[in-house]
Design brief:
This protein is α/β, with parallel strands linked by helices. The protein has helices at 27-33, 52-58, 60-64, 66-80, 124-140, 166-175; strands at residues 7-10, 21-24, 42-44, 84-88, 148-151. The strands form 2 sheets. Strands 3-4-5 form a 3-stranded parallel β-sheet, with no helix packed on it. The protein is globular.
């Protein structure tokens, strides 16, 4: 605690009390309801509809709901102009042709570059949604007085995660003493 006031907002109720002010409901409704004088120093936009590979591959429209959520967050940032934004994108924005087959190689941040038009087909609807948000951030950034920080985490892990998330699935195979232990994919990514 550095003396900051933290407001958490989620559509899912927490299992235990949180050390912050907590608001329950849709983030879109909350941000849309804030008047012009209600600002935050920083917004950490961690809300998203997710569900692991099963949802990404089997329910692409479920993931597309994030387009509206992201639009609401960027609309709020553009409206107040002085609130910093931290946006977690995803490694799913990287072009698939750089990750599969003979063209596979180590990925670099510059493999996604809006200024040069250096883009490729990302990973399913989830990758498109995250890529769209990154592009939106690049359009909003010049019109506000605060920075927007976009980062691309790879294979995050945490409690309550679906069984088909990479780290969870690998841990399950390790605990089952799978032999051979297939970590993920062909190993040629």
């Amino acid at each position: 605690n550095f003396g900051d006031t933290v407001t958490g907002h989620d559509s899912v109720l927490p299992d235990a009390p949180l050390p912050c002010t907590f608001r329950h409901g849709r983030a879109e409704d909350y941000l849309s309801s804030l008047g012009p004088g209600h600002t935050f120093d920083t917004v950490f936009h961690l809300a998203a509809t997710v569900g692991g590979r099963t949802v990404i591959e089997g329910s692409p429209l479920h993931i597309a709901r994030n387009l509206e959520l992201d639009r609401t967050v960027f609309d709020y940032i553009a409206r107040v102009r002085t609130t910093r934004l931290v946006y977690p994108s995803s490694s799913a924005v990287y072009p698939l042709h750089l990750q599969e087959g003979e063209g596979a190689r180590a990925l670099e941040e510059a493999d996604v570059d809006f200024t040069s038009g250096r883009l490729g087909v990302p990973d399913n609807t989830y990758g498109w949604v995250k890529l769209t948000a990154e592009f939106t951030a690049s359009l909003v950034r010049p019109h506000i007085e605060a920075p927007i920080v976009v980062y691309r985490p790879f294979s995050v892990y945490g409690p309550g995660q679906a069984e088909d998330y990479p780290v969870t699935a690998i841990a399950r195979r390790v605990l089952a003493r799978a032999d051979p232990l297939v970590v993920w994919g062909s190993g040629q990514q």
